[in-house]
Amino acid sequence: SNEATSEFSNGDFESGHVAPWEEISDAQITTEEAHSGKYSLKITGQYAYQRWISVVPGKTYVFSAWFKWKEFSGSDWGYASLGVTNYDWSEATAINQLNERYEKDRWNKIAVAFVAKTDAVQLQLGVYGPQENVLMYFDDVEFYEKTGENEAPTVQASASASTGNVPFSVQ
Description:
Layout: E1 29-30, E2 40-43, E3 47-54, E4 60-73, E5 79-86, E6 91-96, H1 98-101, E7 108-115, E8 120-128, E9 133-145
Antiparallel strand pairs: 1-2, 2-9, 3-8, 4-7, 4-9, 5-6, 5-8
């Protein structure tokens, strides 16, 4: 990357401030709703992001958040989204139309996984594009490397000839 990279932070908004999230203001850190702690991020039409978060190409990462929506309507084209953009501006992954996929008025866990193709990514959530009536919240946002994926469960098996239930007959 040409630009300095950073680590993901402030996913729980408990500082009461938005930094290092961009395109949103401290006024959107609210106590109206929270999945945990005191604060959450209130979205009324914004698209918040953190860039450029360091990743290692070839490794798998997870971007997750708790999401609650109360209102999402209007005739415009904007949609609720959570996603990841590669450093070359290609899309790494996204879940769109969150309000159509998740139940209203309750906290829903959203998670996307992707294999990094560049050495930095942008993490984004909120409303992509214009929409008229929006009220939703994000909290407990996390970004981490997924390790040990698809490992088979381990079973500690043991057998004993002297104990247990063994069918036998005495001649």
